Queue: 2 jobs
Job 1
Amino acid sequence: MVGVDEVGRGCLAGPILVVAARQTATLPEGIRDSKLLSRRQREAILERLTSNVEFGEGWVKAAEIDNLGVASALRLGVKRALSALTADIREVIIMDGKVNYLPKRFRGGVCMVDADNLLPIVSAASIYAKVTRDNFMVKLAQKYPEYSFESHVGYGTKIHLQALDAHGVIKMVHRTSYEPIADLLVAGS
Protein backbone atom coordinates (compact mmCIF):
# COMPACT_ATOMS: atom_id res chain seq x y z
CA MET A 1 0.00 0.00 0.00
CA VAL A 2 1.13 3.52 -0.79
CA GLY A 3 0.00 6.50 1.26
CA VAL A 4 -0.15 9.99 -0.26
CA ASP A 5 -0.51 13.37 1.41
CA GLU A 6 0.36 16.98 0.62
CA VAL A 7 1.32 20.12 2.46
CA GLY A 8 1.30 23.75 1.44
CA ARG A 9 -1.90 23.90 -0.60
CA GLY A 10 -3.28 26.94 1.22
CA CYS A 11 -0.02 28.86 1.58
CA LEU A 12 0.60 32.26 0.02
CA ALA A 13 4.27 31.45 -0.53
CA GLY A 14 6.48 28.51 -1.30
CA PRO A 15 5.83 25.20 -3.04
CA ILE A 16 3.29 22.47 -2.56
CA LEU A 17 4.91 19.19 -1.58
CA VAL A 18 3.13 15.92 -2.26
CA VAL A 19 4.66 12.82 -0.69
CA ALA A 20 4.03 9.18 -1.55
CA ALA A 21 5.09 6.66 1.11
CA ARG A 22 5.52 2.87 1.01
CA GLN A 23 6.12 0.83 4.17
CA THR A 24 9.16 -1.46 4.08
CA ALA A 25 9.23 -2.52 7.75
CA THR A 26 7.19 -2.11 10.94
CA LEU A 27 6.20 1.48 11.51
CA PRO A 28 7.18 3.16 14.78
CA GLU A 29 4.66 4.10 17.49
CA GLY A 30 3.10 7.53 17.67
CA ILE A 31 2.38 8.02 13.98
CA ARG A 32 -0.64 10.19 13.23
CA ASP A 33 -1.61 13.24 11.22
CA SER A 34 1.29 15.72 11.22
CA LYS A 35 -1.07 18.54 12.22
CA LEU A 36 -1.69 16.77 15.55
CA LEU A 37 2.01 16.59 16.40
CA SER A 38 4.44 19.25 17.56
CA ARG A 39 7.43 20.13 15.41
CA ARG A 40 9.70 18.20 17.80
CA GLN A 41 7.43 15.13 17.71
CA ARG A 42 7.28 15.18 13.89
CA GLU A 43 11.06 15.40 13.59
CA ALA A 44 11.62 12.59 16.10
CA ILE A 45 9.13 10.32 14.34
CA LEU A 46 10.60 11.13 10.93
CA GLU A 47 14.04 10.02 12.10
CA ARG A 48 12.54 6.61 12.95
CA LEU A 49 10.46 6.49 9.74
CA THR A 50 13.31 6.85 7.28
CA SER A 51 14.52 3.28 7.87
CA ASN A 52 11.01 1.78 7.62
CA VAL A 53 9.45 3.71 4.74
CA GLU A 54 10.37 4.64 1.17
CA PHE A 55 9.34 8.16 0.18
CA GLY A 56 8.77 9.88 -3.15
CA GLU A 57 8.62 13.67 -3.31
CA GLY A 58 6.49 15.70 -5.71
CA TRP A 59 7.44 19.38 -5.49
CA VAL A 60 5.35 22.00 -7.30
CA LYS A 61 6.83 25.51 -7.42
CA ALA A 62 4.82 28.68 -6.80
CA ALA A 63 5.07 29.65 -10.49
CA GLU A 64 3.70 26.24 -11.53
CA ILE A 65 0.80 26.65 -9.09
CA ASP A 66 0.05 30.06 -10.58
CA ASN A 67 0.22 28.74 -14.15
CA LEU A 68 -1.75 25.53 -13.58
CA GLY A 69 -4.14 26.38 -10.76
CA VAL A 70 -4.11 24.50 -7.48
CA ALA A 71 -6.05 21.41 -8.66
CA SER A 72 -3.76 20.75 -11.64
CA ALA A 73 -0.73 21.58 -9.50
CA LEU A 74 -1.81 18.92 -7.00
CA ARG A 75 -2.24 16.40 -9.83
CA LEU A 76 1.27 17.23 -11.02
CA GLY A 77 2.66 16.88 -7.49
CA VAL A 78 0.97 13.49 -7.05
CA LYS A 79 2.32 12.31 -10.41
CA ARG A 80 5.84 13.43 -9.47
CA ALA A 81 5.66 11.81 -6.02
CA LEU A 82 4.43 8.47 -7.37
CA SER A 83 7.06 8.57 -10.10
CA ALA A 84 9.82 9.31 -7.58
CA LEU A 85 8.61 6.35 -5.49
CA THR A 86 8.38 4.20 -8.65
CA ALA A 87 4.85 3.22 -7.66
CA ASP A 88 3.36 0.31 -9.56
CA ILE A 89 -0.07 0.74 -11.14
CA ARG A 90 -1.21 -2.44 -9.35
CA GLU A 91 -0.50 -1.04 -5.87
CA VAL A 92 -3.28 0.14 -3.61
CA ILE A 93 -2.84 3.88 -3.20
CA ILE A 94 -4.66 5.86 -0.53
CA MET A 95 -4.61 9.65 -0.77
CA ASP A 96 -5.73 11.88 2.06
CA GLY A 97 -8.63 14.18 1.21
CA LYS A 98 -11.95 14.44 -0.60
CA VAL A 99 -10.67 14.81 -4.16
CA ASN A 100 -8.79 12.08 -6.01
CA TYR A 101 -5.78 13.66 -7.74
CA LEU A 102 -4.24 10.29 -8.63
CA PRO A 103 -3.41 9.56 -12.27
CA LYS A 104 -6.11 7.35 -13.85
CA ARG A 105 -3.67 4.55 -14.59
CA PHE A 106 -3.54 3.84 -10.83
CA ARG A 107 -6.86 1.98 -10.75
CA GLY A 108 -6.35 0.90 -7.14
CA GLY A 109 -6.13 4.49 -6.00
CA VAL A 110 -8.74 6.07 -3.76
CA CYS A 111 -9.00 9.12 -1.58
CA MET A 112 -10.17 9.09 2.01
CA VAL A 113 -11.04 11.97 4.30
CA ASP A 114 -8.85 11.93 7.43
CA ALA A 115 -6.63 9.17 5.99
CA ASP A 116 -3.63 11.05 7.41
CA ASN A 117 -4.95 10.25 10.90
CA LEU A 118 -6.55 6.86 10.23
CA LEU A 119 -3.89 5.03 8.18
CA PRO A 120 -0.30 4.96 9.47
CA ILE A 121 1.26 4.93 5.99
CA VAL A 122 -0.65 8.10 5.04
CA SER A 123 0.37 9.58 8.41
CA ALA A 124 3.98 8.78 7.49
CA ALA A 125 3.56 10.69 4.20
CA SER A 126 1.97 13.56 6.12
CA ILE A 127 4.84 13.77 8.62
CA TYR A 128 7.54 13.55 5.95
CA ALA A 129 5.83 16.21 3.83
CA LYS A 130 5.37 18.64 6.72
CA VAL A 131 8.92 18.33 8.06
CA THR A 132 10.50 18.50 4.61
CA ARG A 133 8.51 21.52 3.42
CA ASP A 134 8.93 23.34 6.75
CA ASN A 135 12.70 22.83 6.49
CA PHE A 136 12.60 24.24 2.95
CA MET A 137 10.79 27.33 4.24
CA VAL A 138 13.35 27.76 7.06
CA LYS A 139 16.09 27.84 4.41
CA LEU A 140 14.05 30.34 2.42
CA ALA A 141 13.84 32.50 5.57
CA GLN A 142 17.63 32.71 5.62
CA LYS A 143 17.53 34.25 2.13
CA TYR A 144 14.57 36.52 2.93
CA PRO A 145 14.72 37.11 6.72
CA GLU A 146 12.30 40.06 6.61
CA TYR A 147 9.40 37.69 5.77
CA SER A 148 9.74 35.34 8.80
CA PHE A 149 9.08 32.24 6.68
CA GLU A 150 10.52 30.10 9.47
CA SER A 151 7.57 30.96 11.72
CA HIS A 152 4.56 30.85 9.35
CA VAL A 153 6.03 28.65 6.56
CA GLY A 154 4.17 30.63 3.90
CA TYR A 155 0.66 30.70 5.36
CA GLY A 156 -1.28 33.97 5.39
CA THR A 157 -0.63 34.90 9.02
CA LYS A 158 -0.68 38.43 10.39
CA ILE A 159 3.14 38.49 10.45
CA HIS A 160 3.32 37.37 6.81
CA LEU A 161 0.73 39.92 5.66
CA GLN A 162 2.58 42.69 7.51
CA ALA A 163 5.83 41.65 5.80
CA LEU A 164 4.10 41.74 2.41
CA ASP A 165 2.83 45.27 3.12
CA ALA A 166 6.28 46.41 4.22
CA HIS A 167 8.49 44.60 1.69
CA GLY A 168 6.27 43.62 -1.24
CA VAL A 169 5.90 40.37 -3.15
CA ILE A 170 8.75 38.01 -4.03
CA LYS A 171 7.60 36.85 -7.47
CA MET A 172 9.39 33.47 -7.54
CA VAL A 173 8.31 32.69 -3.97
CA HIS A 174 4.82 34.12 -3.54
CA ARG A 175 1.84 32.72 -5.43
CA THR A 176 0.85 35.66 -7.57
CA SER A 177 -2.56 34.18 -8.44
CA TYR A 178 -3.57 33.95 -4.76
CA GLU A 179 -5.31 36.72 -2.84
CA PRO A 180 -4.07 39.04 -1.37
CA ILE A 181 -0.86 38.66 -3.41
CA ALA A 182 -2.66 39.40 -6.69
CA ASP A 183 -4.17 42.57 -5.18
CA LEU A 184 -0.77 43.72 -3.94
CA LEU A 185 0.69 43.30 -7.42
CA VAL A 186 -2.15 45.28 -8.99
CA ALA A 187 -1.84 48.03 -6.38
CA GLY A 188 1.93 48.19 -6.92
CA SER A 189 1.75 48.54 -10.70
Job 2
Amino acid sequence: MNQEQFDKIRSGDGFIAALDQSGGSTPKALLQYGVGEDAYGNETEMFDRIHEMRTRIITNPAFTGERIIGAILFENTMDRDIEGQGSAAYLWSVKRVVPFLKVDKGLAAEADGVQVMKPMPGLNELLARGRQKGVFGTKMRSVVKRANEAGIAAIAEQQFEVGRQILDAGLVPILEPEVDIHSPDKAQAEELLRERLLAGLKDIPGDQLLMFKLTLPEADDFYRELVEHPRVLKVVALSGGYSREEANARLARNPGVVASFSRALTEGLTAQQDEDEFTSLLDGAIQSIYDASVA
Protein backbone atom coordinates (compact mmCIF):
# COMPACT_ATOMS: atom_id res chain seq x y z
CA MET A 1 0.00 0.00 0.00
CA ASN A 2 1.18 3.49 -0.84
CA GLN A 3 1.63 5.19 2.55
CA GLU A 4 1.44 8.69 1.08
CA GLN A 5 -1.91 7.88 -0.52
CA PHE A 6 -3.14 6.27 2.68
CA ASP A 7 -2.25 9.37 4.69
CA LYS A 8 -3.95 11.63 2.13
CA ILE A 9 -7.23 9.71 2.43
CA ARG A 10 -7.03 9.45 6.21
CA SER A 11 -6.12 13.04 7.05
CA GLY A 12 -6.15 15.16 3.89
CA ASP A 13 -8.68 17.98 3.57
CA GLY A 14 -11.05 17.59 0.67
CA PHE A 15 -13.40 15.13 -0.99
CA ILE A 16 -13.51 12.24 -3.45
CA ALA A 17 -14.71 12.95 -6.98
CA ALA A 18 -16.94 10.19 -8.35
CA LEU A 19 -16.21 9.93 -12.08
CA ASP A 20 -17.39 6.34 -12.49
CA GLN A 21 -20.73 6.34 -14.31
CA SER A 22 -20.66 3.35 -16.64
CA GLY A 23 -22.86 1.19 -18.81
CA GLY A 24 -26.50 2.23 -18.60
CA SER A 25 -25.80 5.50 -16.77
CA THR A 26 -23.37 6.84 -19.38
CA PRO A 27 -25.94 8.19 -21.89
CA LYS A 28 -27.65 10.15 -19.11
CA ALA A 29 -24.33 11.57 -17.87
CA LEU A 30 -23.43 12.60 -21.42
CA LEU A 31 -26.83 14.17 -22.02
CA GLN A 32 -26.44 16.29 -18.87
CA TYR A 33 -23.07 17.35 -20.32
CA GLY A 34 -24.77 18.44 -23.54
CA VAL A 35 -23.75 15.43 -25.63
CA GLY A 36 -26.78 13.69 -27.13
CA GLU A 37 -27.01 10.15 -28.48
CA ASP A 38 -26.53 11.50 -31.99
CA ALA A 39 -22.90 12.22 -31.04
CA TYR A 40 -21.97 8.52 -31.00
CA GLY A 41 -22.97 5.52 -33.07
CA ASN A 42 -21.98 2.61 -30.82
CA GLU A 43 -20.74 1.76 -27.33
CA THR A 44 -17.07 2.35 -28.20
CA GLU A 45 -17.83 5.86 -29.44
CA MET A 46 -20.03 6.48 -26.38
CA PHE A 47 -17.11 5.62 -24.10
CA ASP A 48 -14.85 7.82 -26.24
CA ARG A 49 -17.20 10.76 -25.53
CA ILE A 50 -17.36 10.08 -21.77
CA HIS A 51 -13.56 9.78 -21.63
CA GLU A 52 -13.27 13.14 -23.36
CA MET A 53 -15.55 14.61 -20.70
CA ARG A 54 -13.60 13.06 -17.83
CA THR A 55 -10.26 14.05 -19.33
CA ARG A 56 -11.48 17.64 -19.59
CA ILE A 57 -12.46 17.61 -15.92
CA ILE A 58 -9.35 15.84 -14.60
CA THR A 59 -6.85 17.92 -16.61
CA ASN A 60 -8.56 21.20 -15.70
CA PRO A 61 -6.44 23.48 -13.46
CA ALA A 62 -9.28 23.57 -10.89
CA PHE A 63 -9.04 19.79 -10.40
CA THR A 64 -6.09 19.16 -8.05
CA GLY A 65 -5.16 17.39 -4.85
CA GLU A 66 -5.42 20.62 -2.91
CA ARG A 67 -9.20 20.18 -2.60
CA ILE A 68 -9.78 16.69 -4.03
CA ILE A 69 -8.24 13.78 -2.12
CA GLY A 70 -9.41 10.97 -4.40
CA ALA A 71 -11.27 10.11 -7.60
CA ILE A 72 -13.26 7.01 -8.53
CA LEU A 73 -12.84 5.69 -12.07
CA PHE A 74 -14.58 2.86 -13.85
CA GLU A 75 -12.72 0.10 -15.65
CA ASN A 76 -12.92 1.65 -19.12
CA THR A 77 -11.40 4.92 -17.84
CA MET A 78 -8.66 3.08 -15.93
CA ASP A 79 -7.70 1.28 -19.14
CA ARG A 80 -7.33 4.55 -21.09
CA ASP A 81 -4.66 7.24 -21.02
CA ILE A 82 -4.72 10.90 -20.01
CA GLU A 83 -1.94 13.02 -21.56
CA GLY A 84 0.16 9.95 -22.31
CA GLN A 85 -0.16 8.24 -18.92
CA GLY A 86 -2.59 5.64 -17.62
CA SER A 87 -5.54 7.46 -16.04
CA ALA A 88 -4.84 6.24 -12.50
CA ALA A 89 -1.13 7.04 -12.76
CA TYR A 90 -1.91 10.52 -14.13
CA LEU A 91 -4.28 11.25 -11.24
CA TRP A 92 -1.60 10.58 -8.65
CA SER A 93 1.62 11.62 -10.36
CA VAL A 94 0.31 14.87 -11.87
CA LYS A 95 -2.70 15.86 -9.72
CA ARG A 96 -1.84 14.18 -6.36
CA VAL A 97 -5.34 12.69 -6.34
CA VAL A 98 -5.67 9.11 -5.04
CA PRO A 99 -7.23 6.76 -7.65
CA PHE A 100 -10.05 4.32 -6.88
CA LEU A 101 -11.74 1.82 -9.21
CA LYS A 102 -15.42 0.90 -9.47
CA VAL A 103 -15.49 -2.91 -9.55
CA ASP A 104 -19.17 -3.93 -9.42
CA LYS A 105 -20.99 -5.15 -12.52
CA GLY A 106 -24.30 -3.46 -11.78
CA LEU A 107 -27.41 -4.33 -9.82
CA ALA A 108 -29.52 -7.47 -9.66
CA ALA A 109 -33.32 -7.26 -9.85
CA GLU A 110 -35.05 -5.95 -6.73
CA ALA A 111 -35.89 -8.51 -4.05
CA ASP A 112 -36.80 -7.94 -0.38
CA GLY A 113 -36.75 -4.19 -1.00
CA VAL A 114 -33.11 -4.09 -2.14
CA GLN A 115 -30.91 -4.59 -5.18
CA VAL A 116 -27.78 -6.58 -4.41
CA MET A 117 -24.83 -6.58 -6.78
CA LYS A 118 -24.66 -8.88 -9.77
CA PRO A 119 -21.99 -11.61 -9.63
CA MET A 120 -18.44 -10.41 -10.30
CA PRO A 121 -16.60 -13.19 -12.11
CA GLY A 122 -13.02 -12.23 -12.78
CA LEU A 123 -12.86 -9.86 -9.81
CA ASN A 124 -9.46 -11.12 -8.67
CA GLU A 125 -8.00 -10.48 -12.12
CA LEU A 126 -9.51 -6.98 -12.18
CA LEU A 127 -8.08 -6.22 -8.74
CA ALA A 128 -4.64 -7.40 -9.81
CA ARG A 129 -4.82 -5.22 -12.93
CA GLY A 130 -5.96 -2.27 -10.84
CA ARG A 131 -3.00 -2.64 -8.49
CA GLN A 132 -0.64 -2.88 -11.46
CA LYS A 133 -2.08 0.36 -12.82
CA GLY A 134 -1.65 2.19 -9.53
CA VAL A 135 -5.15 2.02 -8.04
CA PHE A 136 -5.32 2.47 -4.25
CA GLY A 137 -8.84 1.21 -3.57
CA THR A 138 -12.15 0.13 -5.04
CA LYS A 139 -15.86 0.96 -4.91
CA MET A 140 -18.96 -1.20 -5.32
CA ARG A 141 -22.61 -0.18 -5.13
CA SER A 142 -25.83 -1.85 -4.09
CA VAL A 143 -29.16 -0.14 -3.34
CA VAL A 144 -31.66 -0.20 -0.48
CA LYS A 145 -35.18 0.85 -1.50
CA ARG A 146 -37.20 -0.18 1.56
CA ALA A 147 -36.61 -0.75 5.28
CA ASN A 148 -36.69 -4.52 4.84
CA GLU A 149 -34.61 -6.28 7.48
CA ALA A 150 -33.86 -9.38 5.39
CA GLY A 151 -32.93 -7.37 2.33
CA ILE A 152 -30.65 -5.00 4.23
CA ALA A 153 -28.97 -7.94 5.94
CA ALA A 154 -28.31 -9.50 2.50
CA ILE A 155 -26.84 -6.24 1.18
CA ALA A 156 -24.51 -5.83 4.15
CA GLU A 157 -23.40 -9.46 4.03
CA GLN A 158 -22.57 -9.24 0.33
CA GLN A 159 -20.74 -5.92 0.69
CA PHE A 160 -18.55 -7.22 3.51
CA GLU A 161 -17.91 -10.56 1.78
CA VAL A 162 -16.61 -8.85 -1.38
CA GLY A 163 -14.86 -6.23 0.76
CA ARG A 164 -12.79 -8.93 2.45
CA GLN A 165 -11.81 -10.29 -0.98
CA ILE A 166 -10.62 -6.81 -1.96
CA LEU A 167 -8.68 -6.38 1.28
CA ASP A 168 -6.97 -9.73 0.64
CA ALA A 169 -5.88 -8.36 -2.75
CA GLY A 170 -4.10 -5.48 -1.04
CA LEU A 171 -6.60 -2.74 -1.91
CA VAL A 172 -8.89 -0.61 0.27
CA PRO A 173 -12.58 -1.25 -0.47
CA ILE A 174 -15.28 1.40 -0.39
CA LEU A 175 -18.51 -0.36 0.54
CA GLU A 176 -21.47 1.52 -0.96
CA PRO A 177 -24.86 0.28 0.26
CA GLU A 178 -26.84 3.27 -1.05
CA VAL A 179 -30.23 4.07 0.46
CA ASP A 180 -32.50 5.45 -2.26
CA ILE A 181 -33.31 9.08 -1.40
CA HIS A 182 -36.89 8.45 -2.58
CA SER A 183 -37.45 5.52 -0.20
CA PRO A 184 -40.72 6.09 1.71
CA ASP A 185 -39.07 4.74 4.88
CA LYS A 186 -35.57 6.12 4.33
CA ALA A 187 -34.83 6.98 7.98
CA GLN A 188 -35.86 3.50 9.16
CA ALA A 189 -33.78 1.88 6.40
CA GLU A 190 -30.77 3.92 7.53
CA GLU A 191 -31.25 2.71 11.11
CA LEU A 192 -31.29 -0.93 9.99
CA LEU A 193 -28.31 -0.42 7.71
CA ARG A 194 -26.15 1.31 10.31
CA GLU A 195 -26.79 -1.57 12.72
CA ARG A 196 -25.68 -4.10 10.08
CA LEU A 197 -22.58 -2.14 9.13
CA LEU A 198 -21.43 -1.83 12.72
CA ALA A 199 -21.97 -5.57 13.21
CA GLY A 200 -20.05 -6.39 10.03
CA LEU A 201 -17.04 -4.40 11.14
CA LYS A 202 -16.54 -6.80 14.05
CA ASP A 203 -15.28 -9.42 11.59
CA ILE A 204 -12.68 -7.16 9.97
CA PRO A 205 -9.17 -8.07 11.20
CA GLY A 206 -7.46 -5.50 13.38
CA ASP A 207 -4.79 -4.69 10.81
CA GLN A 208 -7.22 -3.92 7.98
CA LEU A 209 -9.26 -0.80 7.18
CA LEU A 210 -12.14 -0.15 4.83
CA MET A 211 -14.30 2.78 3.77
CA PHE A 212 -18.03 3.43 3.41
CA LYS A 213 -19.89 5.48 0.83
CA LEU A 214 -23.34 6.23 2.22
CA THR A 215 -26.43 8.23 1.37
CA LEU A 216 -26.72 11.58 3.13
CA PRO A 217 -28.86 10.64 6.15
CA GLU A 218 -32.11 12.03 7.48
CA ALA A 219 -30.68 12.50 10.99
CA ASP A 220 -27.69 14.83 11.38
CA ASP A 221 -24.37 13.31 12.49
CA PHE A 222 -25.98 9.90 12.01
CA TYR A 223 -22.84 7.97 11.06
CA ARG A 224 -20.54 9.22 13.81
CA GLU A 225 -19.96 5.68 15.14
CA LEU A 226 -18.68 4.67 11.72
CA VAL A 227 -16.59 7.83 11.29
CA GLU A 228 -14.84 7.13 14.60
CA HIS A 229 -14.58 3.35 14.21
CA PRO A 230 -10.99 2.02 14.35
CA ARG A 231 -11.58 -0.24 11.31
CA VAL A 232 -12.88 2.61 9.11
CA LEU A 233 -10.44 4.72 7.11
CA LYS A 234 -13.06 7.19 5.85
CA VAL A 235 -16.81 7.69 5.48
CA VAL A 236 -17.84 9.47 2.30
CA ALA A 237 -21.29 10.51 1.11
CA LEU A 238 -22.99 10.16 -2.26
CA SER A 239 -25.21 12.93 -3.59
CA GLY A 240 -27.83 10.39 -4.63
CA GLY A 241 -29.85 12.71 -6.83
CA TYR A 242 -29.95 15.68 -4.48
CA SER A 243 -28.99 18.98 -6.07
CA ARG A 244 -25.51 20.25 -5.25
CA GLU A 245 -26.99 22.88 -2.93
CA GLU A 246 -29.08 20.34 -1.01
CA ALA A 247 -26.27 17.76 -0.93
CA ASN A 248 -23.78 20.31 0.42
CA ALA A 249 -26.23 21.49 3.07
CA ARG A 250 -26.86 17.93 4.28
CA LEU A 251 -23.16 17.07 4.16
CA ALA A 252 -22.21 20.08 6.30
CA ARG A 253 -24.49 18.73 9.04
CA ASN A 254 -22.50 15.45 9.19
CA PRO A 255 -19.03 16.31 10.55
CA GLY A 256 -16.27 13.85 9.67
CA VAL A 257 -18.07 12.71 6.51
CA VAL A 258 -16.72 14.03 3.20
CA ALA A 259 -18.33 14.14 -0.23
CA SER A 260 -17.98 11.59 -2.99
CA PHE A 261 -20.31 13.32 -5.41
CA SER A 262 -20.94 12.50 -9.04
CA ARG A 263 -23.95 14.34 -10.46
CA ALA A 264 -23.61 17.14 -7.92
CA LEU A 265 -19.98 17.67 -8.98
CA THR A 266 -20.66 17.91 -12.71
CA GLU A 267 -23.98 19.78 -12.40
CA GLY A 268 -24.02 22.65 -14.91
CA LEU A 269 -20.93 21.62 -16.89
CA THR A 270 -21.42 21.23 -20.66
CA ALA A 271 -19.34 20.39 -23.70
CA GLN A 272 -20.41 23.67 -25.30
CA GLN A 273 -18.76 25.90 -22.67
CA ASP A 274 -15.45 27.55 -23.51
CA GLU A 275 -12.51 26.80 -21.22
CA ASP A 276 -12.87 29.96 -19.12
CA GLU A 277 -16.54 29.34 -18.38
CA PHE A 278 -15.98 25.62 -17.82
CA THR A 279 -13.09 26.29 -15.42
CA SER A 280 -15.05 28.92 -13.52
CA LEU A 281 -18.05 26.62 -13.02
CA LEU A 282 -15.92 23.59 -12.10
CA ASP A 283 -13.86 25.65 -9.66
CA GLY A 284 -17.04 26.93 -7.98
CA ALA A 285 -18.47 23.42 -7.73
CA ILE A 286 -15.24 22.02 -6.26
CA GLN A 287 -14.98 24.86 -3.75
CA SER A 288 -18.57 24.48 -2.54
CA ILE A 289 -18.21 20.71 -2.11
CA TYR A 290 -14.82 21.15 -0.41
CA ASP A 291 -16.32 23.69 2.02
CA ALA A 292 -19.16 21.31 2.93
CA SER A 293 -16.69 18.43 3.35
CA VAL A 294 -14.42 20.26 5.79
CA ALA A 295 -17.24 22.02 7.68
